[in-house]
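Dissemination and training. As part of the outreach component of the grant, students in the summer workshop were shown how a complex can be specified as a set of sequence lines and then modelled as a single object. The example used during the hands-on session is reproduced here so that future cohorts can follow it. Participants entered these lines:
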Amino acid sequence: MSDPFVIVGGDAAGLSAASKHRRENPDREVVVFEKGRWVSYAQCGMPYYVKGEVDSLLDMLSLTPSDAEERGIDLRREHEVVGVDTDASTVSVEGPDGRFEQPYGDLLVATGAQAVSEPIEGHHLGGAFTIHSMDSTAAVRAFLTDPAEPEFAEPNVEYVDTALVEEFLAREPPETAAIVGGGYVGVEMAEAFAAHDLDVHLFQRPEQLLEPFGEPVGERVAETLRENGVTLHLGEAVERIESDGNGDVGGVSSTGGSVDAGLVVVGIGIRPNSGLVANTPVELGESGAIATDRYGETNVDGVYAAGDCAEMRHAVTGSHDWVPLGLTANRAGRAVGQTVAGRPTPVGDIAGTAVVKAFDMECGRTGLVDHDRARDAGFDPLSKTVTAGSRSGYYPGGAETTVTLTADRGSGKLLGGTIAGTDRAAIRIDTVATALENDMTVGELERTDLAYAPPFSPVWDPVLVGAKVLNGALED
Amino acid sequence: MSDPFVIVGGDAAGLSAASKHRRENPDREVVVFEKGRWVSYAQCGMPYYVKGEVDSLLDMLSLTPSDAEERGIDLRREHEVVGVDTDASTVSVEGPDGRFEQPYGDLLVATGAQAVSEPIEGHHLGGAFTIHSMDSTAAVRAFLTDPAEPEFAEPNVEYVDTALVEEFLAREPPETAAIVGGGYVGVEMAEAFAAHDLDVHLFQRPEQLLEPFGEPVGERVAETLRENGVTLHLGEAVERIESDGNGDVGGVSSTGGSVDAGLVVVGIGIRPNSGLVANTPVELGESGAIATDRYGETNVDGVYAAGDCAEMRHAVTGSHDWVPLGLTANRAGRAVGQTVAGRPTPVGDIAGTAVVKAFDMECGRTGLVDHDRARDAGFDPLSKTVTAGSRSGYYPGGAETTVTLTADRGSGKLLGGTIAGTDRAAIRIDTVATALENDMTVGELERTDLAYAPPFSPVWDPVLVGAKVLNGALED
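and obtained this result:
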């Protein structure tokens, strides 16, 4: 096969595929088209860069353009793929020198996702941001920087939108920040802004923060945010971002009233960038993301999709689902790189395992948490919530850990779980995720030989306490 | 059945069985004979009591005698069961008022284990201890107490051997402690003694600390102990505990020389207390512990064994094995209590999952770690060790985490794993334990959807990095 392996998108999935493919098959050409200046940046690190815990944007690149070059990847930044012709096996590319057609032997669509912000009026005002690109993140950090101490901002980092960063660096930092949306981004940005002593207002249309984590976790996170001085506006839908009259944000108006704010962050979700294949035979799934098989291949031979633009098989439901997360993108990209190199490798299932930090509260979730979703998948869900110590009761430093497990009444099959607590809570969700991957029943989980030592876990780990109580309820 | 459910031993397994049985079947009499004054004490908490992190011995009782009474358990302390007649279904008991025969309907032997110390000459000298009873632990803590500040010790706690505690409270604290044995007890006591500013010498006959955790963990722990001022005598066998000429310890002599010490702790292992059934038809396993089936029943109908005196089925080998650990005792006891009440409940498998803290180093192990043991079980083991970050590289506070995974070459089946690191390392072993319980291959583990967020884990959790590298080696 003489035509190259062409990859659209130079982030986690795309560059994982490119790197793995080059290692497996050093003779084959790999071309990666990335429409932006940035490649392979750590999306999930951005709130911590704004907070000031990460010094430089460059620290968050997992692969620099020169690393890519060393691996023999032909990486073309500022090249946007604008069309795919699956009959001709070519992509249309717009680059700095104009448009051209690029033939491919195999194609990986790894175009990621984008922040949703359009529904909110005023999202274009100066000082309103989404935290979904390096440029806007750099601008937010610059905005928080006292112009007298400009070293906190990074106007001169390679690849960054220098003009944008300098514009916000020149402004006086805002005193109040409004956050629209109480998901990952909203909760993490609340922590980041509080660290800069801003007056932080968080608006969330539902009554619950972190909806995918379920109510018990949402409540503990709300409590933590309030304890840290964040004003929560739960059950309030933001109607518009208000202008200050000069093209910048002045505040937000919601169904509950209005709040003045000099900085607004919108984090109300993301959607898959699947538009590139919209007019091709490549099929999308119900979620609007690209449908793939267990090797990440679409319905068109030789065309793959991986990462935030693709659906994958869910470990619990067995159906395809869209859960855009970092590990999934890396793992699927790597598997596709290996498969295209001639060694078929499954991309693996997803369980929707996710963890998030809200100040000192560690939260985790995996599998099916919402009962409606569980019923849609054909299960009869029962959940139990327990609060258990993270260490032996007599050992200092333990913390109340809230575990909710959900199972199917008929079969006892474990469907999902959530956890919240301040002492090594989040990472314990991996036990539940591993149980889901293996179709364990709650009874089997209850009998699993987990670790116990006073500094790390009580005799019955909080996850086991959850399994014990849920299994008791199933038996009744 | 009119005769009571009789339980021999009032610790984790015995009282878990008694409590569960009373809840399931409130009408049936449950009699627990405990030879000592203490019941249900947290063996694993003792080093932290000596260290001073736990204030009172009473904090470490998970069930007090009055709790037991409230649950309707007929608990007889200072009653030693000295014989079992399985034909007559009676046990012979020696109590404060003499000897008597007690009929039983069902019998649970939960006699635990005892510290091995006899092989070492001088183990009877004053100031030489094992850390396997509340009395000796209280005495060690009293010994470390400055007689001028006696509130640190607890001579007046109910149930304690007051004379012993007062004897050591009256002495000047020692300046040097020698520890014989580098297993759990040895490593934890090194930390406890160092906290009291003692000069600590630890002797370990093998070259490696924490042998069940394998070499990579042993090395990291040795490094940690040395950094904290502990003098290690690895590869040195202690020949005897030396006398000071007055019936107290003066030091220890080993194959490597001799060290003066005013306090000696021997922690060279424990052995199952299975002697009670030695002259009965109840069969022992190869380990010398009592053989049981999946419900904890012995070969004699109606006679059960659970906890540190019993063997259980190993999740990886499928054979029976003796791994005395706290969760196992609690879980098996609880299951037997339920089974005897008429609801047959499996005791579950063991994977030998264990965690231990050595200063700030967190260590975990599960499954088959030693290659000889893996070969004995019919496997062809291959291990790989990786060192991976515990958090995203750019996020502060991460730590190098050492993961070793072992698999069978032929099948790719995961056999075991170990972990060491200072940031949430130990608890991650639960992921590997859950994988073992489900007979996962390394490839399946590699594709498991584990948690990722910069403060808690890199994109690829250290366990996944281990699986990726081992799976790569298996494929080569």
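Residues 326-340 of chain A form the longest helix (15 residues). Students were then asked to discuss how this feature might be tested experimentally.
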